[in-house]
Design a protein that fits this description.
The protein contains 7 helices and 4 strands, in the order H-H-E-H-H-E-H-E-E-H-H. The protein is of the alpha+beta class. It has 2 domains: 38 residues; 118 residues, Glutaredoxin (3-Layer(aba) Sandwich), CATH 3.40.30. Strands 2-1-3-4 form a 4-stranded mixed β-sheet, sandwiched between helices.
């Protein structure tokens, strides 16, 4: 058999295998979506009850809850990672729901807010008091364990009494 024929057969086999693998994974994603295991591509990739900026700030005042302000973009690798890991953890979700008003700001769609908050990189997380005054910000990815510690530190207002590393020792 000629080398050219072997090459053509190999390319055809690779194409068939790729086609089969693609269709199998697509079928599994559709089944998972139907069974409620994954979110729609058009919806948020998490179960966090995201509020708009103005509505969230208003709710924080009326409910006397601190604000979790999350700056992100669809193209941001670490934003996607946060959504798929940290923001999917049930303990984190429950803690956020019970103790915070969560606001998401897409920096591509709202560059004005990103500039106002001096967002230099993504993701950027800000925490605010219920009166909308700044507590602190966190740049970059945070894993679920660390994030839960941070949420507790903010919610209990321990930042007024001690630094974060001392707080973590008390947990």
């Amino acid at each position: 058999m000629k080398k050219e024929n072997i090459l053509v057969i190999t390319i055809i086999c690779i194409a068939i295998i790729g086609f089969v693998l693609y269709n199998n994974s697509k079928s599994e994603r559709q089944t998972d979506f139907i069974q409620g295991k994954v979110s729609s591509p058009k919806s948020n990739a998490s179960n966090i009850d995201w509020k708009s900026y103005a509505k969230g700030l208003e709710l924080a005042k009326s409910q006397n809850k601190p604000v979790f302000l999350y700056f992100h973009a669809d193209w941001c690798t670490y934003c996607v990672r946060l959504k798929k890991t940290t923001f999917k953890d049930q303990t984190v979700l429950k803690y956020l729901k019970n103790n915070f008003i969560s606001i998401a700001v897409d920096t591509d769609k709202n560059q004005e807010l990103a500039t106002q908050w001096k967002v230099k990189g993504l993701p950027t997380i800000w925490f605010l008091k219920s009166n909308n005054s700044k507590i602190n910000s966190i740049p970059g990815y945070v894993d679920k364990k660390q994030f839960l510690h941070i949420l507790k530190y903010i919610q209990t207002q321990s930042y007024e009494k001690m630094n974060f590393s001392d707080f973590v020792k008390t947990i």
